[in-house]
Design brief:
Length: 407
């Protein structure tokens, strides 16, 4: 009877990926990766061919892939950290920007948190910020490669004493001995961004219940979350950085029912007072554009109240107008010179007569695309202006003016 050899086991992509990553942690791998700091992606083939003469092909491929991820991560983590850290593709995509993670860590620190369970820790960006704030962190993720990356990052940044990485299903982790819980569910799948909170991994409902088990908790969610989906016992905070809304956070154990907008890097934080919507009024001398975090938090009324005689230009548009100039940390101000029904021919004549060569074109409630309009205007000249395409009392309108410098 002949012996039939057993078939070779199918390769395990997860094991292969983890092995390729751990090879980067060797002296050879680290040296190779350090040499790729200024790597030019357009020269990838030539770079790979040259390096493969001296290093294993698998190691070269892993190093080049990691070099690309580090370059992408600079925007979120800064060059000093990004070029010392390690990443997975999903980890870079979903990682919290360092400035936002720092803000959250400082809030936890101010709440007296000393031990925190970071559930769905990803590559460890939030754990790093928390550890730097002096908080001891249990970082949990179920993906073995992600855990290896998080562990390597804690070591690379000298934070291993404060960050324990555990590869486990977050649903099976006992968080009862921790001061706080932070949950960052995956909001991207194989087809891109996930908009249904119950399709998060883990689902929003599970994350909320996990947050309620601790004295303090924060749950990171998409900034577009419907307000009606926010639990009554949670504080909701929308955070922008440099004017771009980055995320929303549900806080438990702080101010139930509160709505907050926080603007980074300055750190100004506006807490809603439950004010009714401002009245609609004619366009005054100044137009105010609330920060995106303020709009997402439904706090435009609070900005209008801050401006004294502030009112809306349209009941459906988040532009506030006022006759007086008042400084606001929560809105950009523009001095308006012209309020005109939208008319392309008229606008072209104005920019030509005033020799406008530079125009900042903004829109809210208009079907006109700014870049299409820019091409049609054929801007030319030494002067500049701001053009706002919007609705005023329901009518398509163009507002012309100048930005007012803050301070």
């Amino acid at each position: 009877m002949s012996h039939v050899p057993a078939p070779n086991p199918a390769p395990n992509p997860a094991v292969d990926a983890t092995a390729a990553f751990t090879a980067l942690l060797t002296a050879e791998g680290r040296a190779l990766l350090d040499g790729l700091r200024d790597y030019d992606p357009s020269q990838e083939l030539a770079t790979a061919t040259r390096l493969r003469r001296e290093h294993p092909a698998e190691l070269v491929s892993a190093a080049i892939g990691q070099a690309r991820l580090r370059q992408r991560a600079v925007a979120k983590f800064g060059a000093e950290d990004a070029y010392r850290m390690f990443f997975t593709p999903h980890g870079v995509e979903q990682a919290t920007r360092a400035s936002v993670a720092l803000h959250r860590a400082q809030r936890f620190q101010a709440l007296g948190v000393r031990r925190l369970a970071d559930l769905c820790c990803g590559n460890g960006g939030d754990a790093i910020a928390l550890a730097r704030a002096g908080i001891s962190v249990l970082a949990v993720d179920r993906d073995p490669l992600t855990c290896e990356v998080a562990r390597a990052n804690a070591e690379a940044l000298g934070l291993s004493d404060l960050i324990e990485v555990r590869c486990a299903d977050v649903a099976e982790v006992d968080t009862s001995t921790y001061d706080a819980v932070f949950v960052d569910p995956a909001r991207r799948g194989g087809r891109g961004r996930i908009f249904d909170p119950e399709a998060y991994s883990p689902p929003l409902s599970w994350a909320v219940e996990a947050a309620r088990t601790a004295p303090r908790a924060a749950l990171k969610i998409a900034p577009g979350v419907p307000h009606e989906a926010i639990p009554d016992d949670a504080e909701a905070e929308w955070i922008s950085d440099g004017g771009d809304v980055k995320e929303a956070v549900l806080w438990f154990g702080t101010e139930p029912g509160a709505r907050r907008a926080t603007l980074l890097p300055g750190g100004a934080s506006l807490v809603g007072r439950g004010l009714p919507d401002p009245a609609v009024r004619p366009v005054g001398r100044y137009l105010y554009e609330p920060d995106g975090a303020v709009i997402r938090a439904h706090l435009v009324a609070d900005v209008a109240a801050e401006l004294g005689d502030g009112g809306l230009i349209d009941e459906t548009i988040a532009y506030v107008t006022s006759d007086e100039l008042r400084a606001s940390a929560y809105a950009a101000a523009y001095e308006i010179t012209d309020v005109l029904p939208f008319n392309l021919k008229r606008l072209k004549a104005i920019v030509r007569e005033r020799r406008i060569g530079v125009a900042v074109i903004k829109k809210r409630g208009s079907a006109v695309e700014p870049e299409d309009l820019r091409k049609k205007l054929k801007l030319d000249g030494p002067n500049s202006c701001v053009i706002v395409l919007t609705r005023v009392a329901g009518a398509p309108t163009m507002l012309l003016g100048q930005a007012v410098a803050k301070g």
